[in-house]
């Protein structure tokens, strides 16, 4: 029996959470402006085209994988194996290109996505049906997949001269030969838009939020919890697979011991900065895109300011900790506001 | 109500059959219970690994060789002791290997850059480890965030700070003359043995810590609280136990143990680097879970962890002898972690 006051209450709480989630995205933009402003004080020419280009090139890999990771975190899971999946797809497709110089690039991209999806399927099956906790599964596959990368490649790097020139061009030029808007950026935005539409307008997309908000209730409503959980890891694997090809395009090489190492931390940072709730149930693609942009700007700003690259990991750690703590505080206030405690 | 009914049914069925059948059912149940004890599987695997190892290489059964190998991996064992507490309490600490690295960095900077005497540096290192762990616990309790989220952040943060302290260089710096080193009494702890035996001192430290903390876990009220928290935190809190203080204490313990591990590693390698023990949280968690501790909390034993740790050593030694590459070894450890939980999930279902 839903009484009128109950409905009213629910409406109120949904507007509060709406306001807070918008506040979050505005918060990231304010922070972004702050970072740019501070950097401009020390380096007035920070916003030179070359730096903007660096930021734009830094972002796509993170956006693509972070959109998948966000879905995983919405379902109360986590996937720390994305860096290894990225490397696996990059190295295998790189080897195909190396051994068959005439191999079609688009087929290569498809192969990369497929390989990523297969590794994602393994993660998803272990988590959804074998009921192994996500952190344990993906911590294990992080090593297993990285081991596979070494076994498959024999420890050899894919050199720049083996990456097709056309693929590298994706990171250099955009449509109509535009230099400032490379194709990789557009691909990332395309993935983000597709993900946003999927999450907002399809039933499967809504199910992802439902099982994150309350898995028991979702099951009682007849939502296929296992299949949806499985799907989320599959999609993240596919996204990491695509990112593996774009890595080869952007950097021109794939190295078994270097490519994608620690990438999961960057991705998780982007996701939690973007306001995705670590308790599951909420998160937006727009937030993740802005979060990635913020991280990219910080990263380029640090190098422009001459801060040694050795600071990067510490900054990430600090930013993740800050983001999750602020989130936890917001959540607590939200609970206080809605339950009137 | 319905769950109670389903639980009752088998008991009713068991009381009906004749006495002989009853005995058979009971002994079968006992056998099943025994086999379902996760540590039994671990011990069985140790025996298997021993046989496989001795077939593969004649050096494998050399006690001195095996004992020396424990030293190369002793830090994992020491961190796994504290991780057993953490996982039984229903938490996880992903930052242990990073705490180890940061403590190592602090040791290097304190002794070489600040000129603090080694004895005092050791004290500083232990306090640093405990404080880093306490910070984890404090953040978890204060923000009410999952331990996973907080320690994933500090995994990056602590190793990041270690990297800021040392850069890509080590202490002693690569460019320094060979005379500037850690004091001789501090280095090479793995080359000191119990007189008259092939047992290295780090292994003794590990055993002593495991026994002391094993007693704490299994024979004290504090230990019972750890299990209670892992079984049902809210009920435990309502029964008057300060679960939040308990959590901070457990993470402080975890940090302290990682600090001890860090000191041993610096002593062993005579050098401090920011990338010490990178990725070893995997091995630590694998050791604990392989030892039969439930990843969902509330179940586990110190004996299981020690046995699983020994199994990991035998495996690593075996793979080392068989020239398996480091990355493939990592893959084996990773699959082992997953298989261990798969098996424990299955036996858990069998028990039901």
Task: Please explain how this structure is put together.
The complex is a heterodimer of chains A (341) and B (352). Chain A is an all-alpha fold. Chain A has a single domain, classed as ABC transporter involved in vitamin B12 uptake, BtuC (Orthogonal Bundle). Chain A contains 13 helices and no strands. The longest helix of chain A has 39 residues. The N terminus of chain A is likely disordered. In chain B, helix 6 packs parallel to helix 8. At the A-B interface, helix 5, helix 11 and helix 13 of A face helix 8, helix 13 and helix 15 of B.
Task: Give descriptors for this structure.
heterodimer, A: 341 residues, mainly alpha, ABC transporter involved in vitamin B12 uptake, BtuC, 13 helices, 74% helix, 0% strand, globular, disordered N terminus, B: 352 residues, 15 helices
Question: How would you summarize the topology of this molecule?
Answer:
The complex is a heterodimer of chains A (341) and B (352).
Chain A: H1 4-42, H2 49-74, H3 82-99, H4 105-128, H5 134-153, H6 165-169, H7 183-201, H8 203-213, H9 215-220, H10 225-251, H11 263-273, H12 285-304, H13 312-339
Helix pairs in contact in A: 1-12, 1-13, 2-7, 2-10, 2-11, 2-12, 3-4, 3-5, 3-10, 4-5, 4-10, 7-8, 8-10, 11-12, 11-13
Chain B: H1 2-15, H2 19-36, H3 38-56, H4 63-71, H5 74-88, H6 96-113, H7 118-143, H8 147-166, H9 201-219, H10 221-231, H11 233-238, H12 243-269, H13 281-290, H14 302-321, H15 326-351
Helix pairs in contact in B: 3-14, 5-9, 5-10, 5-12, 5-13, 5-14, 6-7, 6-8, 6-12, 7-8, 7-12, 9-10, 13-14, 13-15
Helix content of chain B: over 70%
The parts of chain A where pLDDT drops under 50 for at least 5 residues are 1-8
Spans of at least 5 consecutive residues with low confidence of chain B = 1-17
Total strands of chain B: 0
CATH class of chain A reads Mainly Alpha
- Specify the biggest β-sheet of chain A: none
The number of helical runs of chain A is 13
Mean pLDDT of chain A: 89
Overall average pLDDT of chain B: 87
Rg of chain A is 21 Å
Number of domains of chain A: 1
Instruction: List the secondary-structure elements of chain A in sequence, H or E.
Output: HHHHHHHHHHHHH
Helical residue percent band of chain A = over 70%
- What's the order of the H and E elements of chain B? HHHHHHHHHHHHHHH
By secondary-structure content and strand pairing, the structural class of chain A works out as: mainly alpha
């Amino acid at each position: 029996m839903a009484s009128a006051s109950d409905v009213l209450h629910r409406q109120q709480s949904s507007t509060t959470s709406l306001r807070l989630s918008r506040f979050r995205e505005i918060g990231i933009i304010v922070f972004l402006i702050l970072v740019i402003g501070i950097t401009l004080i020390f380096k007035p020419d920070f916003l030179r085209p070359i730096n903007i280009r660096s930021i734009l090139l830094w972002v796509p890999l993170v956006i693509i994988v972070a959109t998948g990771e966000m879905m995983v975190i919405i379902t109360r899971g986590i996937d720390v194996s994305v860096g290894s999946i990225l490397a696996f797809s990059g190295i295998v497709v790189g080897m195909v290109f190396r051994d068959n110089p005439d191999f079609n690039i688009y087929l290569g991209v498809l192969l990369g996505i497929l390989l990523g999806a297969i590794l994602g399927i393994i993660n998803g099956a272990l988590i959804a049906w074998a009921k192994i906790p996500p952190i344990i599964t993906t911590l294990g596959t992080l090593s297993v997949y990285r081991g596979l990368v070494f076994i498959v490649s024999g420890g050899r790097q894919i050199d720049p001269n083996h990456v097709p020139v056309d693929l590298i061009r994706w990171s250099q030029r955009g449509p109509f030969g535009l230099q400032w808007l490379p194709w990789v950026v557009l691909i990332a935005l395309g993935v983000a838009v597709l993900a946003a539409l999927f999450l907002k307008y399809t039933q499967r997309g809504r199910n992802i939020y439902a099982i994150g908000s309350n898995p028991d209730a979702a099951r009682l409503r007849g939502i296929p919890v296992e299949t949806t959980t499985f799907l989320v890891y599959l999609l993240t694997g596919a996204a990491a697979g695509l990112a593996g090809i774009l890595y080869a395009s952007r950097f021109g090489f794939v190295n078994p011991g270097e490519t994608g190492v620690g990438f999961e931390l960057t991705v998780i940072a982007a996701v939690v900065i973007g306001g995705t709730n670590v308790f599951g149930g909420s998160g937006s693609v727009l937030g993740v895109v802005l979060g990635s942009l913020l991280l990219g700007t910080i990263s380029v700003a640090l190098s422009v300011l001459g801060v040694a690259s050795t600071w990067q990991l510490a900054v990430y750690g600090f930013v993740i900790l800050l983001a999750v703590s602020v989130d936890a505080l917001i959540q607590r206030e939200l609970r206080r506001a809605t339950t009137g405690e | 109500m319905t769950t109670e009914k389903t639980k009752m049914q088998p008991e009713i069925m068991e009381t009906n059959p004749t006495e002989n059948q009853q005995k058979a059912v009971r002994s079968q149940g006992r056998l099943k219970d025994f086999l379902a004890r996760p540590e039994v599987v671990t011990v069985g695997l140790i025996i298997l690994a021993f046989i496989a190892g001795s077939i593969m290489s004649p050096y494998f059964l050399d006690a001195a060789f095996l004992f020396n190998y424990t030293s190369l991996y002793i830090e994992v064992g020491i961190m796994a002791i504290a991780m057993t507490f953490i996982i039984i309490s229903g938490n996880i600490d992903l930052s242990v290997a990073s705490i180890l690295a940061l403590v190592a960095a602090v040791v290097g900077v304190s002794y070489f850059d600040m000129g603090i005497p080694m004895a005092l540096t050791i004290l500083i290192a232990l306090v640093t480890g405990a404080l880093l762990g306490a910070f984890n616990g404090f953040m978890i309790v204060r923000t009410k965030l999952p331990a996973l989220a907080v320690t994933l952040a500090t995994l990056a943060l602590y190793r990041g700070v270690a990297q800021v302290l040392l850069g890509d260089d080590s202490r002693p710096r690569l460019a320094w003359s060979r005379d500037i080193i850690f004091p001789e009494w501090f280095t090479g702890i793995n080359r000191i043995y119990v007189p008259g035996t092939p047992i290295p001192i780090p292994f003794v430290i590990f055993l002593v810590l495991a026994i002391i903390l094993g007693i704490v876990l299994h024979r004290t009220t504090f230990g019972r609280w750890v299990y209670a928290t892992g079984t049902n935190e809210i009920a435990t809190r309502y029964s008057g136990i300060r679960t939040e203080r308990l959590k901070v204490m457990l993470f402080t313990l975890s940090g302290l143990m990682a600090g001890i591990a860090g000191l041993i590693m610096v002593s062993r390698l005579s050098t401090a680097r920011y990338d010490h023990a990178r990725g070893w949280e995997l091995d630590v968690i694998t050791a604990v879970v392989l030892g039969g501790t439930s990843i969902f909390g509330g179940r586990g034993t110190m004996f299981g962890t020690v046995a699983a740790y020994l199994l990991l050593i035998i495996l690593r030694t075996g793979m080392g002898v068989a020239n398996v590459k480091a990355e493939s070894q990592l893959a084996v450890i990773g699959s082992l972690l997953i298989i261990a939980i798969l098996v424990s999930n299955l036996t858990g279902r069998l028990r039901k």
